[in-house]
Each structure stands twice: as structure tokens, then as C-alpha cells.
Structure to design on (192 residues):
């Protein structure tokens, strides 16, 4: 079974949790205490108990680290009320301004739908259902921006190819007297 939405960080946290859980369960701790008590050597028993307590403290610290890691992973994927407020107060006016400049009614309708979706209640419900806004909107926007940034390089190569094609067509036209005469008429060129 594959879980595509599970990040490598969550997998690592799960592995750490399983390791800590397997190390010192309640049964293992009870067995260690019983074994230390049956040794009937006070110094060894005290030393063994101190070592056991230290191991348990270390494992508790590891469990706290794992829990904090899980919390960080979950909160990094969720939008807070502040996030939603910031988005609606900063981004929606920009989209509205673009819609006004273009006079495009369909963009205005889309904006109103977007405004309804970007309420804290709707965002909270969708997140409870498992919708990941950062992944659904953030990643495509990142890819779109990246493509727009690299696009001028692609266009310049495309432009060079088109210029070469234009030169080639001009050379063909220059070698055909009838085509050259038609071109002069179309362009209104007179060399008389």
C-alpha cells in the first residue's frame, strides 16, 4: 500500500516512534526492575535503577521530539485564521484590481467565488476533510512562477528560430522575381 501524501519527514518520525516504543515498553521495564531486585546487591540494584531511569528520561525526550515533529508537519500543512485573514486582505484586492483593469466580468465572478472559499470556516472544514491548501495552491503557483521566470530564455530561442525562418523565406522570395514583385505591391514599395 502506498501513501503518496506522506512526506519523508513523517516516515522518519514514524520510524523513530516505533523504535522508542519497542525499546522500553511497560513489560520490559517491569522485567528489568524485577531482575534488579532479585540480584540482592544493593549497589548494583541502585546503579541499575539509575541507569533505567536515565534510559526512560532519554526515551521521554525522544518521544517529545517526535511529537513536536508530528505537530510541526501537521501545522506546516494547515492554514491558520491569521493566514486566511492575511491572504484575503492582501491577495484578493490585487485580483480585484486586475479584474477591474481588464473589465472582465468573469474574473469578478471568479473573485466572488474565491472570496467565499477563503473564509476561515470554509478553510477549516476543508482542512478537516484532508484538503491541503499549501499543496493544492502553493505548489502549482510555485511551478507557474518558475515557468514564467524561465520562459524568456525559451522565447529568445524561439524568437531566434523564427527570425532564421523569416530570413530563409526572404531569401526564397528574393530569388523568385514574381514573388518579389508581389511583395513590393503588398508593402507599397516602389524602387522606380
Amino acid at each position: 500500500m502506498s501513501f503518496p501524501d506522506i512526506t519523508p519527514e513523517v516516515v522518519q518520525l514514524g520510524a523513530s516512534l516505533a523504535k522508542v516504543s519497542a525499546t522500553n515498553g511497560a513489560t520490559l521495564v517491569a522485567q528489568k526492575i524485577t531482575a534488579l531486585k532479585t540480584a540482592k546487591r544493593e549497589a548494583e540494584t541502585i546503579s541499575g535503577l539509575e541507569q533505567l531511569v536515565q534510559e526512560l528520561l532519554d526515551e521521554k525526550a525522544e518521544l517529545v521530539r517526535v511529537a513536536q515533529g508530528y505537530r510541526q508537519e501537521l501545522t506546516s500543512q494547515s492554514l491558520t485564521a491569521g493566514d486566511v485573514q492575511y491572504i484575503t486582505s492582501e491577495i484578493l484586492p490585487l485580483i480585484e484590481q486586475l479584474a477591474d483593469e481588464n473589465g472582465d466580468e468573469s474574473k469578478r465572478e471568479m473573485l466572488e467565488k474565491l472570496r467565499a472559499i477563503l473564509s476561515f470556516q470554509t478553510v477549516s472544514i476543508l482542512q478537516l476533510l484532508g484538503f491541503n491548501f499549501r499543496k493544492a495552491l502553493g505548489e502549482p503557483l510555485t511551478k507557474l512562477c518558475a515557468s514564467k521566470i524561465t520562459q524568456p530564455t525559451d522565447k529568445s530561442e524561439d524568437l531566434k528560430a523564427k527570425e532564421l525562418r523569416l530570413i530563409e523565406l526572404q531569401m526564397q522570395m528574393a530569388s523568385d522575381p514574381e514573388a518579389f514583385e508581389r511583395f513590393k505591391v503588398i508593402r507599397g514599395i516602389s524602387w522606380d
